[in-house]
Amino acid sequence: MTELLFRGGTVHTVDGPKQADVNVTDGVITRVEQRLPVQGRVIDVSGMYVLPGGVDVHVHSRDPGFPEKEDFASLTAAAAAGGITVVLDMPNTVPAVDTAGMLESKAAMAHSKARVDFGLWGLIRSSTTTDQLEAMAAAGAIGFKAYLAYSFSVSRKQVLYSPGTDDPDLEPPADYGTLAQLAAAVAHVGLPLAIHAEDPTVLAAFRRPISSYEDLLASRPPEAEAVAVSAAAAVARESGAHLHIAHLSSALGLQAAEDAMRIGTTLTLETCPQFLLLTSEDFDRVGSAMKMLPPIRTAADREALVDGLERGAITIVSTDHAPHTDEEKSLPFEDVPAGSPGVQTLYLSCLQIAKDLGDVWLAPRWVSEAPARLVGLEGHKGAIAPGFDADLVIVDPNAKTRVHAEQMRSRQRHGVLEGMDFDFAIKDVYLRGESIANRAPARGRMVRPAMVVG
Ligand code: NCD
Ligand code: ZN
Known about the structure:
single chain, eight-stranded mixed sheet, globular
């Protein structure tokens, strides 16, 4: 048996922050109490915060498909360095994860490379059947994702950024009808139904060439988000399916979601640090790293999202970590692919946001506790308590971190938070009792709702 004792830290326990020691036996937390007797190796964490490992519910590994942008090794190395011990990978890799067979082959590949634990989302296409959905659930999907505004190339097995044209190879995106037909099955298997909430008819009306940031904003109006949230909520409500809104970006979208919750929709909201920290005004400084969908919007949108987080209407902060290469992100603006990395800065940026709101201990709720609950991992992940995996982040509240491109482990090194300062530093990260912040071996495991398998 391997015994570890983290001694003298301020621990984020289920009852809030406490001075406590944490005893770990064979990678699992066994005791969280004051002044535990010394057993095994002692790790002195006095003066440090001891936080539960982060769970990022929205990352794009690009693997399989685009190894030049990212793969499971570089994604999970970045996660490990940033205190994220579970990543939930989106299904728009190539070939897309739209069947149980694809999910299983992606799981085997990811398992061979992952430096932190990982779970996989399954894709809902407009042609997805109830049987396919149930088979993906049985194969270990942690939830399903529907890209309402993106078409699907049947020959390439790839989710594309724009709704279909007349091209017969392009299958139209899943729509509200698809969701209505599948909602009962989603409710039955008990997994969340996540949507990329942009309504394609609103986007079609505002379509234009994108040569400036103003064009990008004008082409993706907040109405697209609000309409998608309201309509998806309307079709999910009766079935009792759990609707999850990915990367909420606007005040209007937040209002639509809160209206839906008020009338009894089972709905959770996720937003991202970029929407909480930046506005369109930052484009001149940041540049094309800020091209992402949905876009970073106005100061009023930012304030509404911060307020929603503070009030607890938004419970989850994820990254939508979506790297491309730095070369691709340096193309003329209209050719720059949408998306940027974020997994390595999620925890630190949330600690800062929480501190600025007056309660730093909100951060582990947004990046660990609530995300673990969303994907059914609440027995193993998301808390520092006996029986939970010893996924621990040791944070120095008296040291500072500036985000530098050279320290980023993702293939796209220039992210939107580059140059930002945080009043915290990550001292070490443990995955099931093993230190992984600096050099993490490929020992990540696949997580499944309600259980973890090796
Ligand atoms: C994501 C990607 O590149 O996969 N891009 C993005 O701008 N957010 C897709 C997505 O999450 O919608
Ligand atoms: Zn998305």
